[in-house]
Amino acid sequence: xxxxxxxxxxDVHVSFGGVHALRGVSFQALKGEILAIIGPNGAxxxxxxxxxxxxxxxxxxxxxxxxxxxxxxxxxxxxxxGIARTFQNLALFRGMSVLDNIMxxxxxxxxxxxFACALYxxxxxxxxxxxxxxxxxIIDFLEIEHIRKVPAGALAYGLxxxxxxGRALALEPELLLLDEPMAGMNLDEKEDMARFILDxxxxxxxxxILIEHDMGVVMDISDRVIVLDLGEKICEGxxxxxANDPRAIKAYLGEAVAQKGR
Amino acid sequence: MINRECGIFRTTYQADMSLxxxxxxxxxxxxxxxxxxxxFPFVVDHKHxxxxxxxxxxxxxxxxxxxxxxxxxxxxxxxxxxMATGGYTAAIMTTRADVPFWVGLIAGxxxxxxxxxxxxxxxxxxxxxxxxxxxxAAQFITEWIINHVEWIGGGFQASIIVPPASLGPVRFDxxxxxxxxxLALVVLAVxxxxxxxxxxxxxxxxxxxxxxxxxxxxxxxxxxYKLLSFMISSFFAGVAGALYVYYVGxxxxxxxxxxxxxxxxxxxIIGGLGSILGxxxxxxxxxxxxxxxxDILEFFRGVLPVTDxxxxxxxxxxxxxxxxxxxFLMVEPEGLNRLWRNVKDYFxxxxxxx
Lengths: 262, 354
Description:
The structure holds 2 protein chains of 2 kinds. Chain A is built from 10 helices and 10 strands. Chain A is an alpha/beta fold. Chain A has 2 domains: 1-82 and 173-262, P-loop containing nucleotide triphosphate hydrolases (Rossmann fold), CATH 3.40.50; 93-171, no CATH class. In chain A, the strands form 2 sheets. A 6-stranded mixed sheet of chain A has the order 6-7-8-3-9-10, with helices on both faces. In chain A, strand 1 (7-16) and strand 2 form a beta hairpin. Chain A is globular. The mean pLDDT of chain A is 90. Chain B is mainly alpha-helical. Chain B has a domain at 22-258. Chain B contains 15 helices and 4 strands. In chain B, the strands form 2 sheets. A two-stranded antiparallel ribbon of chain B has the order 1-4. Chain B has a two-stranded antiparallel ribbon with strand order 2-3. In chain B, helix 4 packs antiparallel against helix 5 (101-120) and helix 13 (276-299) packs antiparallel against helix 14. In chain B, 44% of the residues are buried. Classes of the chains: A alpha/beta, B mainly alpha. Chain A binds chain B through residues 53, 55, 74-76, 79-80, 84-85, 87, 91-96, 100, 103-105, 107-108, 110, 112, 114, 116-120, 124-125, 127-129, 132-133, 136, 167-168, 171, and chain B through 12-14, 17, 192, 195-196, 198-204, 206-207, 209-211, 213-222, 228, 232, 274.
């Protein structure tokens, strides 16, 4: 293999005091693929995402992004390398407009320092306009033109989730981590979100790691599935393989999905 | 001002991002600028000019604190300490090294900024009340240093006499000349504040205030930006402190005690956190209102049924002032700026309510 995988997680252990949240998880995520991580509550899914983002530092193991070791980097450095994420519980900047929220996604791409910002006219303004164009393309893509100047905190839940996706996309990431992007949504909103995720994959060629509890969505849109339970990876494979795997069924899926998968 | 946006179309992003997108708003701002530059100083008497100057100096300090507390969400109850740093730096450099006014002013800002960096260090680890107490400690330490280190403060409860400011051949001696000096710096502070607030830097500040975890994930180095916020904020405070010292002509610790810190905090809370215009409203409210109240009470001197009139007026002034602060905060907890926005929003679509 000449090119290293997009993300290479090697034997990662994370524990909090006596609680072992992750014990020896290894997997790879590839460019342009949707990889779903499923498992019961407390299986360590979000911990895994947090470890990739640099929010927690694993006690053991390594995380490589495009062959570069990012295990010990601080979150903002990892973001600059091209990993973006959304949160399970919304984490928008509520006081700011949708536009400013997404503009923050451009933060690492912008260079204006203190004096340029205080002066504004000139280089800083030109930079703002340039990045505004990129942001407007994302706003177009997510069909949120009508709310671009509304404070993010005033929006309905489904739209906030969409704005959060927009903010992550503004980073122009190569790897996008989505932590339950469809939790608490109704069917229409879920379908919209699924369509956006597929569009992101197809049009931008971004690798996506998706945590989701809705098995229908996972089976439909993901290319590969990993099942976590009690901090360990218990199986990995194509959606239909996982749906028929006895370990996965026992740990999480239950009989109903297994039958549907047949 | 009153934004009637109907029929105004913005065809470039640049126009969409301008500070005042509506012609009427631009005209209003220009009118205000002209009024304060050409009309105001010539129609008011000396006393009111003094009020204006104090209010102006407070505006500079309040904008600084608002960048830190209102935008970045880091509370500081030690802002008078940064003002003191700026004030004493300017005083010492002017009296001992005989540096020109503008050097003293900028040096005041720079030294305060460096001091702010040190005081801001705890913000890397603590926030909220804990940070408030850390900055409060800085306030007390600074007061102690100025009182007890003779090289800086000139001795216990001493003061340093500072010659009036001058810029080349121009000397700022009279109240009117000082007014223009203050006005120029207020304009600079307001413009810098507005620009910082709407650019990359301001967005990063607000991101840290609203959700620091998300800010970090999106690529904002929160340690760096918190400290940067402290430095910028203290720079404003330092300049305000230096300006105060040049304006009054003495550097004394009386002017930079904890009550001053709380006063500036009150300004931005009353005016509106996270708003430059709010800082102006708040500073004017806190500085001018007590003075104006005194005037109003003086007016009723004859009719008030009290014997010790002077004590009565000074006490009642404080009570009315406190009451008004409470009233305004109950009417609109988000400050005067919000009150003003509500009025604006009402007229935006007037006479239709939707």
